[in-house]
Amino acid sequence: MDVHVNRVPVTGRVTQVTYSPGRFLPAYKPEAASSNERSEIWIDHGGQMVVARQIVGILARRVVCRAQLGADVHAGDRFGIMKFGSRMDIFVPANATILVKVGQAVRGGETVIAVLH
Hints:
It contains one helix and ten strands; from the N terminus they run ββαββββββββ.
């Protein structure tokens, strides 16, 4: 219930913005990532692709994504919100160094989650 304002995870150019309608399963369930209503932004960060996926859940039934295809974005910029919270998945290249641990609380615009090489 604590993900509301969504921020761009890396500086780069938005290469893809997608919206997928779907179900409203609890966002913590693994199948929510592919079954629930969601929006994704794909960001080219110096040749490395990073994806931010907004996933709504049982309570949060509205995702707002303001990212624009082709836009230059900066780490920490606001790009959307999810009404009443939900789930944000960040996909980084396999060679990234992950700095957070499973279950760790992170704060948007403050916590560095990974270093890209």
